[in-house]
Amino acid sequence: MYQIKTYNAIVQTGLDRFNDDYQINQTDDADGYLIRSVDLHEHDFPETLKVIARCGAGFNNIPLDKATANGTAVFTTPGSNANAVKELMIAVLIAASRNLFAAADYAANNSGADISKRTERDKTKFNGQELLGQTLAVIGVGHVGSLVANAASNLGMKVVAYDPYLSSDAAWRISTDIKRAKTLDEALAVADYVTVHVPKNAETTGMIDADAFAAMKPGVKVFNFARGGIVDNTEMIKALDDGRAEAYFTDFGSDEILNRNDVVITPHIGGSTAEAETNGAVQGADSIMTFLETGNVLNSVNLPNLQVPFVAPYRITVMHKNIPNMVGQIATILANANINIENMSNAAKNDVAYTIIDVNHLQQQDAAIIDQLSAIDAVYRARILKREQ
Questions:
Q1: CATH code at 185?
Q2: What confidence tens digit (pLDDT) does each residue in 210-233 have?
Q3: Which domain does 236 fall in, by range?
């Protein structure tokens, strides 16, 4: 019986994915966590915790080093809220081009007997611009960025995309009408609108900085519906004040951008749809069950992708440091126990490696194998799995 602990409100559809081999919120000593936004940085992980699945694409609320040291695999659900973020971004893009936010605010506060006269007189203040023929620079064309790029292209915009880490899968998702820039500056230089859709990490934090603004055309509109901190807010304000940028639209508020007529902030609602929450919960639950029952890995942020058909009666999985001779040490322990390896697969992600070994037999006493594997200094966690017949 596997124990699952949830944090935040997890959609029931996701919880319903777990079968009778799982109990939900019956103990703190869980095998898996299914979470959304709870901050786990000060959390004490139980030794039993083998997997965390975060319903969403980000994972800055999870201490990866601590999770890895505990032998805990961490998964996200990339793409689960991609359509929701895309739709919000396109909605704001259209609203921005037509000055809809300012116009609605004006109309909501326009009262008195001569409303019609004043409206006719003042409406030219809100003259907008059609998106047709305008150029949008999409920085990052992963799950969300590719959808945004295609949708903008379908609206008749010229779209230029920049992503130095463009995967083959992402490339297939992008319309052939979209131009690919070789550098960030090349994309920014031609854009009337700029939107960022990159993950937040050491390389992307503050990537839209003073140099980036210097590369943009005057009067550009900037959008950030990816992560707070991708756009340097201090430099954003400078660009707005000196006219380099006309307006800023973001899903992430902070003190320095509050109370400005040229900044529109939404309260982090990019992925806040019923469909996105359901997608994330279902994908997260499936990731947990797959990992606990088969050891296979897909969309982990601290383990490499490794998916091996589970056809042997038993499987041994080992999460360990990515250093020389680890596979040799593991194989030696199994050989000394007279265990014949039917299949072995190994992959690494940065400093962490993961090994899957399929075997035909294990004796009752062979549970001691786990103790021997775990005794290797570089091993974070070893498990034995039995294939369901």
A1: 3.40.50.720
A2: 999 999 999 999 999 999 999 999
A3: 83-93+130-265
For residues 359 and 340, state if they share a domain: yes
- Hey, which residues are catalytic here? 227, 256, 268
**141 and 155 co-located in one domain:** yes
Asked if residue 369 is part of any domain, the answer here is yes
Tokens 């509109």 identify what position? 221
Task: Identify whether residues 198 and 178 lie together within a single domain.
Answer: yes
Dump pLDDT digits (tens) for 77-126.
999 999 999 999 999 999 999 999 988 888 888 766 677 766 677 777 78
Structure pTM?
0.84
**CATH number of the domain where residue 389 is located:** 3.30.70.260
Round to whole Å and give the CA distance between 214 and 260. 22
